[in-house]
Amino acid sequence: MSATLDIEGPAAPPRSNGELVFAEPWESRAFGMAVSLSDAGVFTWPEFQAALIARIAAWEGSAKRDEPYSYYGLWLAALEDVLTSVRVVSTDEVITRARSLARRPSGHDHRDHSDHPNHPDHTH
Hints:
Blueprint: E1 15-16, E2 19-20, H1 25-39, H2 45-61, H3 71-85, H4 91-102
Antiparallel strand pairs: 1-2
């Protein structure tokens, strides 16, 4: 990974014993997408860091503090900001895809896939 993560400061990802912490599978996917796209040269890591810091600052300064803090929610929003700023995707595409994903049933990533051929419990 060529991206240099902040260890401290507003853009530092959650860690436990030095390891990155992801509460949900989508968080690690959002993390991986940002790092991979930066490594591929779609945007620079400083561009992403600036977008993330701006998102965090906006959340901290917002009057709606009743909304719980979600580091990776802000991470994903920053990724969307960067991708739209470099014109990889349009804002309309992001909104359409977000709405589509929001309509998915709760827990769709956590169903039992033991019938999938690559699942360790699959019986042939």
